[in-house]
Automatic annotation (TrEMBL):
This is Uncharacterized protein. It comes from the Bacteria.
Length: 412
């Protein structure tokens, strides 16, 4: 049986729980750590996880499989600029980059980018530089010589900015300003990033489709964008991208309907997918309401849908995309309501899964509960009670050793 660890972060309470999910047995608890929820968890090779601690201004490297064995749960830390917006690694898991965003400000104000070398001589080495004020996405890829590149996805004006990691790591103290060695234009409304380590392509979600670029020799080259529309379904756009590395498929949730946030129960949602090694693509209707992040378990893509008429987990076949099951979830106190935004002062849900198992975990924000479901339908759902309330839904990762999750080197 595959060894699994559920890592659940209550970013408001400042606690990280490590649990054996099949038995519900708590293995470790890390207090005083406030995960940057927007940047999320980053899966690294060997079953490790990284996240940014918003209050400490640190990158935290976790070894969930040391929990319960006497080994240290925190494998390493490194200073990073906060508030952390996005987090990504190179395919080896040695080099990481962290961008900064708005935090609790209404407008972007920080231009700091941090790059980290986890395998520096004596301890992880981090370097901060100044790029451009915004809320940039980030990805790392390699040029033909194998040297890592850092790619920032900016908005207003939109662009993909390319930097050589080696030059960033050699920057002097004092957070000096740096300029990209190459830039590609993008629409101003980019939101959502992914990278394919196999082909070296980077992807950015915009209102007009998924823009693509790859590094060809000494310069990046833009490729034809992938449309959100399919012959059967049109309209809307995706705000989130995720790579299913096992099936080499790009996924998103395409949102349509009225633009007013208070009318979110009327939003339409489709699971959008595109095979990276061919032209196959499609959309699967999920239903109205709030659908955003997703997770991958064995042969399944899993979504959560929040709606005043009832919340649910939606299980989609990842090989032949279609809805296989809908599992109702118990309601949340202070859930999003009609006429108000679905993200301000309300409870939310986080979802986690591992490609190595059929288990799916979903939080019940504000209740200190995690629902554990078997996407294959072989077992009944059950509920795990945790000692912190998981305000705002928290954040989770389900980890198995070398389950392939590190093949998606962008934090989720």
């Amino acid at each position: 049986m595959t060894d699994l660890r559920l890592v659940a972060a209550d970013h408001v309470a400042g606690a990280v729980h490590v649990v054996e999910p099949r038995t519900g047995r708590p293995l470790a608890r890390l207090d005083g750590r406030h995960l940057a929820e927007h940047a999320g968890f980053l899966h690294l090779p060997g079953g490790r996880l990284a996240f940014a601690d918003e209050l400490a201004g640190e990158l935290v490297l976790l070894d969930p499989f040391a929990a319960g064995t006497g080994g240290p749960l925190v494998a390493a830390t490194a200073p990073v600029a906060v508030p952390a917006e996005h987090l990504a690694a190179d395919p080896t898991g040695r080099y990481l980059a962290v961008t900064t965003g708005c935090g609790r400000s209404w407008e972007p104000w920080s231009d700091l980018l941090t790059v980290v070398d986890l395998a520096a001589a004596d301890r992880p080495r981090s370097v901060r530089v100044r790029t451009r004020v915004g809320e940039p996405g980030v990805a790392l890829l390699a040029d033909r010589a194998g040297d890592p590149l850092v790619v920032l996805r900016h908005r207003m004006p939109g662009s993909l900015d390319f930097y050589r990691l080696r030059e960033l790591l050699e920057a002097p103290p004092g957070c000096p300003p740096v300029e990209p060695f190459a830039r590609l234009p993008l629409p101003d409304d980019g939101h959502g990033d992914a990278v394919d380590p196999v082909t070296g392509r980077v992807f950015a979600a915009t209102g007009g489709g998924v823009h693509r670029a790859r590094f060809d020799g000494s310069a990046p080259r833009a490729e034809r964008p992938l449309p959100w529309d399919t012959p059967e379904h049109t309209g809307g756009r995706g705000f989130y991208l995720r790579l299913d590395s096992a099936r080499r498929t790009l996924w998103s949730t395409v949102r349509g309907g009225p633009g007013e946030p208070g009318r979110w129960p009327e939003w339409t949602n489709d699971a959008w997918w595109h095979r990276l090694d061919g032209a196959a693509a499609g959309r699967v209707p999920l239903g109205p309401g709030l659908v955003f992040r997703l997770a991958f378990c064995a042969d399944r893509a899993v979504f959560t849908r929040i709606h005043p008429d009832g919340d649910e987990v939606i299980i989609v076949d990842a090989k032949d995309p279609a809805v296989l099951a809908r599992v109702p979830l118990p309601p949340m106190d202070r859930a999003p309501r009609r006429g108000a935004t679905p993200w301000d002062g309300v409870q939310r849900r986080a979802v986690a899964a591992s490609p190595a198992a059929s288990l799916v975990a979903v939080t019940r924000g504000g209740h200190g509960q995690i629902h554990l479901l078997d996407a294959s339908g072989a077992a009944q759902p059950r509920t795990l009670d945790l000692p912190t309330s998981f305000e705002e839904g928290g954040h989770m990762a389900l980890v198995a050793p070398d389950d392939g999750s590190a093949g998606d080197p962008v934090g989720r």
